[in-house]
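#data-curation
PF: Archiving a pair of folding outputs for the training set. Convention for this channel: one message per protein, sequence first, structure tokens after, nothing in between. First:
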Amino acid sequence: MLFSIEGRKDLSRQLYQSIRSAILSGQLIGGSRLPPTRGLAQDLSVSRNTVLLAYDQLLAEGYVEGRVGSGTYVASALPETGLGIAGATRQAAPGERGSHHLSTYGRRLLDESIAPLWTLGQSHGLLYDFRYGVPAVEEFPHELWRRLLMRRARAASVRSLEYGPQEGYAPLREVIADYLQRVRGVVCEPEQVLVVNGSQQALDLAARVLLDPGDRVVIEEPHYPGARRVFLAAGAHLTTGPVDSEGLDVDALPPTAPSARLAYVTPSHQFPSGVIMSLRRRLALLAWAEANQAYVIEDDYDSEYRYEARPVNALQGLDRAGLVIYAGTLSKVLFPALRLGYLVLPQPLVQPFRVAKWLTDRHTPTLGQEVLTDFIRGGHFERHVRRARVRNAARRAALLEALAKHLGKRVEVVGANAGDHLLAWLRGMERSELNSLVQAAARAGVGVYPIEPYYLKPPPGAGLLLGYTSMRETDIHAGIRRLAAILAGWRRGGHVDGRAKT
């Protein structure tokens, strides 16, 4: 039978699609007579109304035509060039130029160096996942958030269904400005705050507003690859600056750096090395920006979590020339699905960034901003941060203890004094072996993440990023014990399949 139906759901839709496919593939040519509705209904064991509905849809879309007293026929006016009569149509390969070819920007997005790491953070089947950048969402005060959400939803008026301001909900911008002034030493007014859909949109807007194709951007080495990909997609050329124990070494920037329009840095907790930029280096970076009239994006992605001293104040608070763009996120602190971040902009950039935000998506959804405002104003945000800091400190201590106990001198740990992850360099392991180790660990149910994607150039050794904020302390110990067993087998020269009992 030419037409088919599988299952018993949406029968008329299935039949419509089956006949439509037969027409588009050339199995039914123009002028062909379709079976009578009553006979087709009997053949398919469906009601006649099912067939009539399918025929009516085909008639409405122009695939068939009815002839009084004769029946239903495939429309004779369908152009053969639009049908697959000569055979199956060929699908264009990704990036291949066709009649609807991509723009230069679109072609850049297909470059493997720009395309996101889609598998990053996908941890299905892992017993012990040392994933970083994800808070412990099960410990978020969900019931409190739900009550605040329901209260706002019940109080919503018709006006709340209209478009919101592109710069963000005014009360939220006020509480963000107040929080940043008190806690991070940021110098700003609410009108300088732009609410965005996470820090990734903040970077994308900055690239759109500040960069032309061919412009140069200074980034740290190593660095956050999400920023690198945004700048490359914008057509920028990248200059990497070395990072040591004091952060970005401005004096060691290559000769191409003075031509840069923009520098991207993570001074409060360098990502991914975890070092903190010294005051001397901060002042040197600001002097460099002023001398070269370049803007600096300060990504303050996890400053809430510092365990051995008070968080270092933001670089933006030292800026006197109005060249620092401060970017922060609330999704990492609260929960990823929130997708709320913010920019604090120098006054001359406020209007162009607002317009760019409007052109991108008009505005960030208002309801979530309202609930977040209530959450912050009620003291719940800072209370949640304090509790999370205590929990994270205990998990950090558990990870350091487990690494010392099970790996000892085989690992060098850096960047453990703040944030939600640390960097572990594996002594005696070649970089070329690291991916095999990561795969073996995954087969053993342990998720660890190599450092290489965070470098443009080859990294100095074999390193792993180990997150801990979403793990229980017992799981941290068990996961590191299992990883150590895999490494022990590696060093004995035996093949490790990840299934050894630990």
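PF: Second:
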Amino acid sequence: MKLPRRRFLQLAAGTVAAPSVVRGAFALDYPTRPVRLVVGFPPGGSVDILARLIAQRLSDQLGQPFVIENRPGGGTNLATEMVARADPDGYTLLQATGSNAWNATLYSHLSFDFIRDIIPIASIARTFGVMEVNPSVPAHTVAEFIAYAKANPGKIYMASSGPGSAPHLWGELFKMMAGVDLVTVHYRGTGPALPDLMSGRVQVMFDAILSSIEHIRAGRLRPLGVTTLTRTTALPDVPPVAETVPGYEAGGWMGIAAPAKTPAEIIDKLNKEVNAALADEKFAARLTELGAAPFSGSPADFAKFIAADTGKWAKVIKFANLKAD
């Protein structure tokens, strides 16, 4: 699926500006029953952790449970398809991530059209990654790891949380820019990958800081570099990968989306509640503590960001000749 930027922005703007409909009064009372927030990853990963934080906040603010439903598989396509086919009543939402944008290039035969069938509601956070290794790996810096990898081509295993996931693409970008031969091992999410990394079955992983930071602090994993261009508050002593591999930068994002044709009043209400949470100092501090950066804006802002991010990673995917079909 290709992502026509102009079309995406038109759809997002049209949803925000849509006139009140018959269901307007119903939307003003929303929600009157539990809401499902579908997550395309298993429990335990960064997306799941963040989804549970925002779900609890929305439950508290809106007076109805926002229930997490984990639907891993297909690089988030199973979860996205489920939401795309759901009734557009605001009671089935999607925890959208960078995977949704990348899949537009990775997959040639999707059963849904992300632009046509899903509408952005609110961005929540930008996440950045960390290059980490099992402590048994004889490398304490990115430069040492590159030298080790070049001395052992095809013998070092790199964990991925699935084809087209952030860890997969961040790792492929590193392989491309550093000129190293690592064997990619795919898992069904970060949750299942981390135990194998900590046990030494795989040796390296590019993971979101959010899901690995506690293991790093406990010494179960050794960080070599962060994927930002500058040092992060969460891992202030870890240098950027870019100090060794000039120009390397990688990150992810998360937000909430809904089936197309969801009433504009519901979209607006949810957007305001998410932005209110992000403006709360305690909530924002919790995100920062976990390695995520609060990322607020309108539905149209979110759509514009998705379009730009899709264009960036499409170049990497095509260069590496990656296909997930």
